[in-house]
Amino acid sequence: MATKTTVLTGATSGIGEATALALAKKGHALYLLVRNVQKGEELKERLIKETGNKDIFVVKCDLSDLASVAAAADELNAKLFNINVLINNAGGIFNKYELSKDGYEMTFALNHLGHFLLTTRLMPLLEKGHARIINLSSDAHKMGRPDFDNLQKQEGYSAMRAYGTAKLFNIYFTKSLAEKYADKGITAYALHPGIVKTSFGAQLSGFGKALIWLAGPFMITPEKGAETTIYLATEAKIESKSGKYFNKKKVTKPAAVANNVNARNQLWNRSEQLINKIEK
């Protein structure tokens, strides 16, 4: 069997790290897109030592910085013939209102817009590889609201609402990819990894901190949280489930708001406008 070429964001901790280890064991050629190159190199050496897989590569990529994302995509386009699996795993939640280097609300920039640019810029390689695109969403999407008049969240910022909206956008993005690129042999899947015990949300205060504290006894390990991602990256014959939302390796219904086709199309169009603005 030919080696699978897999690109993974957010690999240096939590679910991403567990995913990288599992796929390295399965013989995937892994391209780890990381903000902290030193951590990425340390992970690479550990993966090689633990799995014997030497096809591990580190690429600098800050998902909240569109120039960094574009540079990483260009590096991959220059090096690779194709990509078989793209796992948009990186994410984050921000206690206070922050803007990215490009002037976008940080939750939106990191969780959605960076991955939108990365995915669309890698599309020639993804098409050649008949790729699976896997987007880590969350059941937090149920708190999301597609308010395109307040995309920057300047009015009434809430960390949990901003995060929920970004995770909702991950589902919209997945459905759009599945629809737009089906004839190119590309499939796309969104998933809820579970409530995973990591450093995620450690900086939160107030309501968000209380929610995470309450969830503590029900949290699962990163290895358990990575299971659905690994399933979607490796399971045979799941093409008919493209565009679906998964939990515990099974298709599950997202919230009704996730089926808003008008909002989904608006998000795609707005995202294209925003990345085009940067690229020009």
Brief descriptors of the model:
eight-stranded mixed beta sheet; 45% helix; alpha/beta; 280 residues
Question: Can you put this structure into words, describing what you see?
Answer:
By secondary structure, this protein is of the alpha/beta class. Helices cover 45% and strands 13% of the residues. The chain has helices at residues 14-25, 37-51, 66-79, 106-121, 123-128, 159-180, 206-215, 222-225, 227-234, 261-279; strands at 5-9, 29-34, 56-60, 85-88, 132-136, 187-192, 245-247, 250-251. The protein has an eight-stranded mixed β-sheet with strand order 3-2-1-4-5-6-7-8, sandwiched between helices. Helix 2 (37-51) links the parallel strand 2 and strand 3. It is globular. It starts with a strand and ends with a helix. The model is unreliable at 197-202 and 204-218 (pLDDT under 50).
Q: Could you name the ranges where pLDDT drops below 50 across 5 or more consecutive residues?
A: 197-202, 204-218
Provide the succession of SSEs: EHEHEHEHHEHEHHHEEH
The largest beta-sheet arranges its strands as 3-2-1-4-5-6-7-8
Q: Choose one word for the global shape.
A: globular
**Which sheet architecture does the biggest sheet show?**
8 strands, mixed
Strand content is 5-15%
Total count of strands: 8
Tally of alpha and pi helices: 10
Mean pLDDT metric:
90
Give the proportion of residues in helices: 40-55%
The end-to-end distance, rounded to whole angstroms, is 42 Å
Structural class: alpha/beta
Q: What does the radius of gyration come to?
A: 17 Å
SSE inventory with pairings:
Blueprint: E1 5-9, H1 14-25, E2 29-34, H2 37-51, E3 56-60, H3 66-79, E4 85-88, H4 106-121, H5 123-128, E5 132-136, H6 159-180, E6 187-192, H7 206-215, H8 222-225, H9 227-234, E7 245-247, E8 250-251, H10 261-279
Parallel strand pairs: 1-2, 1-4, 2-3, 4-5, 5-6, 6-7
Antiparallel strand pairs: 7-8
Helix pairs in contact: 1-2, 3-4, 4-6, 6-10
